[in-house]
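Input set for joint prediction.
Command: fold jointly, output tokens.
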Amino acid sequence: DAGVIQSPRHEVTEMGQEVTLRCKPISGHDYLFWYRQTMMRGLELLIYFNNNVPIDDSGMPEDRFSAKMPNASFSTLKIQPSEPRDSAVYFCASSDGRPRKTEAFFGQGTRLTVV
Amino acid sequence: GQQLNQSPQSMFIQEGEDVSMNCTSSSIFNTWLWYKQDPGEGPVLLIALYKAGELTSNGRLTAQFGITRKDSFLNISASIPSDVGIYFCAGTPFGNEKLTFGTGTRLTIIP
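tokens >
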């Protein structure tokens, strides 16, 4: 299996622009997680889906952030409008829930820089 | 929110040495996981623990779920160059399924 695939690997954008991050989970995994990693706050869970349905989005920082999972093989995390403080590495992870959903496989991440 | 304190923050060791690091929380956890992150990569799961007192090994790595359910330990025996990276503990607090990550321990091997 190719693992969790994220794109792009790097994104540089200007403040105010819309940013869309993409994720393809491992085939057969029905849990999908979006994390953000910064030096100050470490790894934070933003939102997770089960069977394409958002289960917990309490970690989404603001209304500027939105995530969708239109089907089992694709998810997006969108920031509109982007701000410099959104600069971070965003990880997508997936799990088949066995033995627990917490045993997730991470993608390589998207490094976002907002200037 | 939940706080996971990892120590030490960084370690500088020589190849062949054993390594110990730990993670503590202010509340009871149901699950403890240990991940390793290499530069430019996502975290990779090393060991998962689900029962208080559980001791689990993965090659040269051994982790334990503390009996108080508020801590966990990771040991690496006979370190090798590829052990370099950042090690994160993670866990799910009692009554909450959300995975919380520790602050990380950066391991460096001195030539």
